[in-house]
Amino acid sequence: MQILVLAIGRLKEDYYRAAEAEYAKRLTRYTPFSIREVKDEAALIKAIPKGSRLVALDEHGASWSSEELANRLLRAEELHGGGRPVVFIIGGAEGISAELCARASPIIAFGRITLPHRLARIVLVEQLYRAYSILRGEPYHRG
User: Each residue of 70-89: pLDDT tens digit?
Assistant: First the structure.
């Protein structure tokens, strides 16, 4: 399964870039993975590959455990069946529009806390890596 993260805005802080790069490096051992930064929602919409499956990060989405993320997003045949790329979309400081959210399924949240959108990117990449380690029974996730 090919995974793409489309994010509005850039990671400017070295510590955020380093954390994201580390988890992205780990994740690419399991699946093709890339991150693309865009300027605004219009550019994000243009960057969505045709035929991809959209997953939105939004504060009003469903909150899943790491195990649920692994099972629902990485094992669910309907999500990545047929080789369609899976695209996670992360808005900027204002989130993403209701119209764009309506195109995504599922919509997920990292609990009820508010995270800066830049930090949510890192949490997403770490959780994707964790999901693959869960599916492979590796010791990273000690649940």
Answer: 988 766 544 555 578 899 99
Instruction: Kindly report the pTM of this predicted structure.
Output: 0.91
Q: What is the CA radius of gyration of the chain?
A: 14
The CA distance from 121 to 139, in Å, is 23
Beta strands in 22-138 (DSSP E): 33-38, 53-63, 86-90, 107-109
Q: What type of residue is 45?
A: I
Q: What is the CATH number of domain 3-135?
A: 3.40.1280.10
SS3 133: helix
Residue ranges of the domains in the chain?
Answer: 3-135
Nearest to 115 by CA among 130, 132, 127: 127
Distance CA 89, CA 44 (A): 8
pLDDT digits (tens, 9 = 90+) for 26-53: 999 998 999 999 999 999 999 999 989 8
